[in-house]
Amino acid sequence: MIEIKELRASIGEKEILKGLNLVVKPGEVHAIMGPNGSGKSTLASVLAGREEYEVTGGEVHFNGKNLLEMAPEERAREGLFLAFQYPVEIPGVSNMNFLKAAVGEVRKHRGEEALSAKDFLALVKEKSALVELDGQLAHRAVNEGFSGGEKKRNEVFQMAMLEPKLAILDETDSGLDIDALRIVAQGVNAMRSPERSFIVITHYQRLLDYIVPDVVHVLYKGKIVKTGTKELALELEEKGYDWIKETVA
Amino acid sequence: MEILDEITGKEYEFGFTTNIESEKIPAGLNEDIIRLISSKKNEPQWLLEWRLEAFKIWQSMTEPTWAHVHYDKPDFQGISYYSAPKTKPKYNSLDEIDPEMRKTMDRLGISMDEQKRLNGIAVDFVMDSVSVATSFKEKLAELGIIFCSISEAVQEHGDLVQKYLGTVVPRTDNFYAALNSAVFTDGSFCYIPKGVRCPMELSTYFRINEAGTGQFERTLLIADEESYVSYLEGCTAPQRDENQLHAAVVELIALEKAEIKYSTVQNWYPGDKDGKGGVFNFVTKRGLCDGYKSKISWTQVETGSAVTWKYPSCILKGDYSVGEFYSVAVTNHFQQADTGTKMIHIGRNTNSTIISKGISAGHSNNSYRGLVQINPSAKHARNFSQCDSLLMTDTSGAHTFPYIEVNNSTAQVEHEATTSKIGEDQIFYCLQRGLDEEQAISMIVNGYAKEVLNKLPMEFAVEAQKLLAISLEGSVG
Fold it and tell me: Which of A154, A214, B306, B450 to pair with B51, CA 20 to 30 A apart?
């Protein structure tokens, strides 16, 4: 699905990713954990194609294509989805119109016909139920006046609508209470399939109780320093990130 | 970022000229020219005298300089004040229209036939100085509605024109209003009789075609007691290297319980991306809410012109009368806009609302200038103003000049203003969902301007949304 080789990226003068390697196969769920400032969110931003980050080295192949050469919207249309840590508000733009345009672009790219209004509405109904998103929210402006939990559920709802091949969840658990966390996880789990992969970025082990990963990586100072199974997350929870820092040092 | 240059270089869509033989009088302005215009139009003596008086007033005035705009003063002696298509100036039937003219109208999306008939819009088309066609006249006449060019109204409804012309915007009002009063050549006239609800949108398209001409149209709209009308105007001009002057006057009169909804989509040629050429749009628009519970609502989408100077205003004279102003003004490249409104509260319990959304891109400057004046007689008057500015680039400017004069203690006046820069985060969010940058900007900007766009009649709203997108393509920086 995605193959990252020796990826280096900087913001301004500061190098944040310092030769990162990662391979995610179709159907796998990889968790990336790490202390604050280790480069987790940078990785998500670089993969999605944010301009502020400069890629200074390495390669990324997404389904055999050179990801780094693609514009952000091409990456999205190719099936890369990022659930944002802080979803922005777009006042005056209805969630429905926004999604209709997005789904339209993605389908066009895949060579599929545009959905009829009726089919689109049916899809909205089906997918919004996955994250127990109130029907009202779909008609409000994108994220405007949404609570933190609603914004995250909206991210997962959008993901379900766009049916990506690879979904990157950037600290989707941050700021969620336990009920919202369960709902978000339930939405993600419903979408797991042998063709779809996930990269779940999180600071805490808690999310991984709900979204059980196949592989857990620890990111530290811009590199993956440890890889293991879900037990690694538990061990981290117990021993704290200082344990990793010491091991690496 | 080369995509940016590519799209900013996009040509003005309506920049074509039409090869129609026209009759143009020599450039320059003096009493003889005014007499010539008046005689060409076969005008009654009172109007000629009215024009000559206006000319005297104009000569005694100087061009205003208080607006936040900079431009080279037009050479008023270098302009031809009358240009008319040579072939029959007025058509008896739409089939008689010059084929070239017809092509122009088609390219502007004005089909005077089936399509508009289905949409139910009556259109008056003014090219250069002359109204060339008006549709639906007979149907409107059945209801007693008069909708025709102002020249025709002068001939056929002289009493109405004489009664109202210059009552809302007097000749002494300002430099450009005086000039317009002296030389106006055509425009639209509309009268809605007592108790009639106009069943269709009335619409005027203005087009400057000839080089070296100015356009000075005059619109006069009277809504008699308990009547209603929704009126639209659209404007385009060819691309020319020199600046063209457009100085119009629009007067609206709403009598007791009458309602006028006046919408404008202004897309005069804005000049090229280096600021060369473009239309100077110096317009005086004012409405008088004369009667009890009368209402005038201005909605404008301003994307064109090199320099815009206009303040569609309401004089709220009738008790319980209502004035509204909804505006989206977009400036890109080197465009300059100084626009806003005046709400003059005279009657008791009068109410006004101002919603202004400015969008500045490129190296442009966009100013909101508004006056809310509550007179001592306007007991319990209320105003709400909201002025938002959106900056697309670091090199563009947004300015707000609100003037509030309250002369009585029972009035309530609220003013809100915000300035924000278009969010890189918002754009990236859209890109990450598969939209391209153009779509993203169009969506964000249209969302920002939604409150105003929603006020436009349906047929215009879609056009306006597209126009916003085109005006701003590739403008983020």
Answer: B306
